[in-house]
């Protein structure tokens, strides 16, 4: 598990370092941009100044040429004065319209004579089609050096002024970079150097920059006064700079600075920024960790107090903190400690009460899963005759299940169960009958089952007694039914015997009469014998469950009650469906039917109903066999209905009922045969007349008889 302190420390260090580095990088980039912008601004101003000086020079030269042209009688002395006064002028030539030199003055006159023909010179050719012309760089015939000239045609004369550019050169050479190199270079409109203070060799060679990267990277198709990086002519030095053009002459003025020198000038500042960032990070980390350690000291203190509380120590008091937020946390923690102490006390009291209640119940309670037992109450120990709880914990719950119930319990083990009977065995191997049920719960992220058991051995014995009492009651009722069914056959036998005796005494007995009388006696005695067999079968105990037809069982029950129905004028209506087969005990089910029908019969007698009806329906619904038994005795009251299946509950006089008939019916249908029984007050129609009465609805699982 990660440490919060280490995580926060790493986060703070990373955050401060990242932010500081980002700020430093941004500051460096901004400073670099500021420096570039400053260089750009400076170069632009210098470039404008040089451009201004060049224009001023051009205007001055043009003015001088105009002055000479307007004078008709210009002398060589006048030309000398002009050249002497203007340091940028090296020579002045006055030519006729054919290009022949008429007058001149030059600071170097070794190779110049009146009468020289200049008609083949470029500066003379250029003037033929215009009134004035500024030449490109050419090799001067005066001193064999690269020169620039201005030509002015006036009337029949051509004035040619060759430039030395001393003043402009002096002005330009004042602009130097930090490394001592000159900033300004100038080329003509064709790209040939006019001057380059750092490399006069290129000027003398009349080097054309259009053949270099300087032109491609700085000038070609590029806007003026925009700073750019470019390599020098030798391609070994990277420069930054810009250019502009002199409009009238097309001269290109270039300003540049060594990029590496510029970067070196920034190094000290960048190092200073880096040191400031490092110092800031160190100071920030120092102060942050100083505060951070104070806060974590408080948190460590709270953590230790939390450990004390988790160990059950509530005696130590909590110190207040210098920090408002931590003090609030400490106050909340102290309040939480008091609440935990209070709740723990209440929880202990609740646990003690729960354990007391758990051990005071009648049920044995077991907490378990499929493999072992986790906890039991004291009743379980007593029920299974175990001395210590440790002797049962961890054992398999199946150890205490009887072999006869093993399969049933295993089937119910994986589901929530309603109460069912099973056989348990204690540590001495003695078995007993119990009523059990179980529900699943989730405890500590485990799916466990709580099973409850209660010893019902005494209840089973009591049920057997009740069952015996019910059977005795049924036997009493059956004896009454036997008396009803035997009365007519016995009367017929008595009449036949008396008739034979009288006829014998009167000596009128013949063979035919004797045979008829004897046949009647035999028939009635056979009927009496069959009746005895029916009642004997009714009271025979069913030992094995079997597939039975509900209709056959119902008919057997109705046959036993047939004479009683006749005596009390009860009409039985039967609506039976076919193949109503279930798994069950025939005689027990017949007894249950008789108990329900007797209950309806007694209600009809008690309420003195004029037309006494008992309607019996059987049908199959949703894979269940359903039996409906209803009467028209008016129904039962709301107070009686919830108690109708309780033992010894009866609405009849003590001399008329025991209150165990319907209880035994419920036991037979629900417990013995896994069926269901419900009772409701209903209204129904029979032969277009509406009746009101009580309805018993019985259902069993349908079993197909193969």
What does this structure look like?
By secondary structure, the protein is α+β, with helices and mostly antiparallel strands. Among the domains are: 361-455, PAS domain (Beta-Lactamase); 456-540, Helix Hairpins, CATH 1.10.287; 544-706, 2-Layer Sandwich (Heat Shock Protein 90), CATH 3.30.565. It has helices at 4-70, 76-85, 122-127, 166-172, 200-204, 213-219, 259-310, 324-360, 378-383, 406-412, 457-505, 511-538, 550-560, 562-568, 586-606, 661-672; strands at 89-96, 101-106, 132-134, 138-139, 146-154, 157-163, 184-187, 193-195, 228-231, 238-245, 252-258, 364-368, 373-376, 417-425, 431-443, 446-455, 546-549, 570-576, 581-584, 612-621, 624-631, 676-686, 689-701. Strands 1, 2, 3, 4, 5 and 6 form a 6-stranded antiparallel sheet that branches. A 5-stranded antiparallel sheet has the order 8-7-11-10-9, sandwiched between helices. Helix 7 packs parallel to helix 8 and helix 13 packs across helix 15 (586-606). The chain is elongated and about 215 Å long. Mean pLDDT is 81; it is low at 653-658.
Give the overall pLDDT as a whole number: 81
CATH topology of the domain at 544-706: Heat Shock Protein 90
Low-confidence sequence ranges: 653-658
Q: Total strand count, please?
A: 23
Number of helices: 16
The biggest sheet, with number of strands, parallel, antiparallel or mixed sense and barrel status, is: 6 strands, antiparallel
Radius of gyration from CA coordinates: 66 Å
Note the gap between the termini.
Answer: 68 Å
Q: Which CATH top level class of the domain at 544-706 fits? A: Alpha Beta
Kindly report the name of the CATH homologous superfamily of the domain at 544-706: Histidine kinase-like ATPase, C-terminal domain
Helical content stands at 40-55%
What structural category do the secondary elements indicate? Answer: alpha+beta
Query: What CATH architecture label of the domain at 544-706 applies?
Result: 2-Layer Sandwich
Shape: elongated
Instruction: Tell me the fraction of residues in β-strands, as a range.
Output: 15-25%
């Amino acid at each position: 598990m990660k440490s919060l302190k280490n995580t926060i420390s790493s986060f703070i260090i990373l955050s401060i370092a990242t932010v500081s580095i980002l700020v430093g990088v941004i500051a460096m980039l901004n400073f670099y941009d500021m420096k570039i912008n400053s260089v750009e601004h400076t170069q632009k101003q210098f470039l404008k100044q040089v451009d201004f000086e060049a224009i001023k020079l051009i205007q001055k030269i043009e003015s001088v040429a105009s002055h000479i042209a307007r004078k008709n009688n210009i002398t060589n002395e006048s030309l000398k004065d002009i050249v002497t006064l203007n340091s940028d002028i090296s020579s002045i030539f006055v030519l006729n319209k054919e290009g022949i030199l008429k007058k001149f003055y030059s600071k170097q006159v070794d190779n110049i004579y009146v009468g020289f023909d200049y008609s083949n010179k470029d500066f003379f050719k250029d003037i033929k089609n215009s009134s004035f012309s500024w030449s490109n760089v050419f090799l001067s015939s005066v001193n064999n050096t690269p020169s620039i000239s201005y030509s002015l045609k006036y009337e029949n004369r051509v004035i040619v002024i060759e430039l030395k550019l001393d003043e402009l050169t002096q002005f330009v050479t004042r602009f130097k970079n930090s490394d001592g190199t000159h900033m300004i270079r100038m080329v003509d409109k064709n790209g040939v150097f006019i001057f380059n203070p750092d490399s006069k060799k290129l000027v003398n060679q009349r080097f054309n920059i259009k053949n270099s990267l300087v032109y491609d990277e700085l000038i070609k198709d590029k806007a003026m006064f925009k700073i750019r990086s470019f390599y020098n002519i030798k391609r070994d030095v990277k420069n930054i700079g810009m250019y502009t053009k002199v409009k009238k002459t097309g001269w290109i003025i270039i300003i540049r600075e060594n990029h590496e020198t510029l970067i070196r000038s920034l190094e000290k500042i960048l190092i200073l920024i880096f040191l400031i960032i490092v110092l800031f990070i160190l100071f920030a980390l120092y102060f942050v960790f100083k505060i951070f350690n104070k806060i974590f000291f408080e948190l460590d203190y709270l953590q230790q107090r939390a450990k004390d509380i988790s160990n059950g120590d509530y005696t130590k008091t909590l110190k207040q903190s210098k920090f408002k937020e931590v003090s609030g946390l400490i106050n909340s923690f102290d309040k939480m400690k008091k609440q935990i102490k209070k709740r723990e006390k209440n929880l202990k009291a609740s646990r003690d009460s729960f354990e007391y209640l758990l051990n005071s119940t009648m049920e044995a309670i077991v907490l378990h899963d499929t493999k072992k037992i986790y906890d039991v109450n004291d009743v379980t120990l007593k029920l299974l005759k175990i001395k210590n709880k440790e002797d049962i914990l961890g054992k398999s719950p199946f150890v205490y299940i009887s072999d006869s119930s093993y399969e049933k319990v295993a089937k119910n083990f994986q589901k929530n169960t309603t109460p069912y009977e099973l056989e348990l065995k204690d540590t001495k191997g003695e078995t007993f009958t119990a009523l059990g049920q179980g529900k699943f719960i989730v405890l500590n992220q485990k799916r466990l089952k709580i099973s409850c058991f209660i010893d019902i051995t005494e209840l089973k014995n009591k049920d057997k007694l009740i069952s015996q009492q019910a059977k005795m009651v049924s036997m009493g009722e059956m004896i009454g039914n036997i008396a009803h069914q035997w009365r007519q056959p016995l009367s017929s036998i008595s009449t036949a015997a008396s008739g034979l005796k009288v006829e014998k005494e009167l000596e009128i007995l013949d063979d035919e009469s004797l045979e008829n009388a004897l046949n009647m006696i035999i028939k009635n005695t056979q009927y009496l014998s069959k009746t005895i067999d029916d009642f004997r079968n009714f009271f025979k105990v069913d030992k094995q469950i079997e597939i039975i037809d509900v209709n056959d069982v119902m008919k057997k029950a109705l046959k036993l009650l047939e004479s009683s129905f006749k005596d009390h004028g009860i009409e039985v209506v039967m609506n039976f469906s076919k193949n109503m087969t279930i798994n069950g005990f025939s005689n027990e089910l017949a007894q249950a039917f008789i108990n329900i029908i007797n209950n309806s019969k007694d209600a009809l007698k008690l309420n003195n109903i004029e037309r006494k009806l008992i309607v019996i329906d059987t049908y199959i619904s949703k894979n269940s066999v359903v039996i409906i038994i209803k009467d028209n005795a008016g129904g039962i009251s709301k107070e009686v209905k919830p108690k109708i299946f309780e033992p010894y509950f009866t609405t009849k006089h003590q001399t008329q009922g025991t209150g165990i008939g319907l209880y035994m019916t419920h036991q037979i249908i629900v417990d013995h045969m896994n069926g269901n029984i419900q009772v409701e007050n209903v209204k129904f129609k029979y032969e277009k007349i509406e009746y009101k009465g009580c309805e018993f609805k019985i259902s069993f699982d349908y079993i197909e008889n193969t």
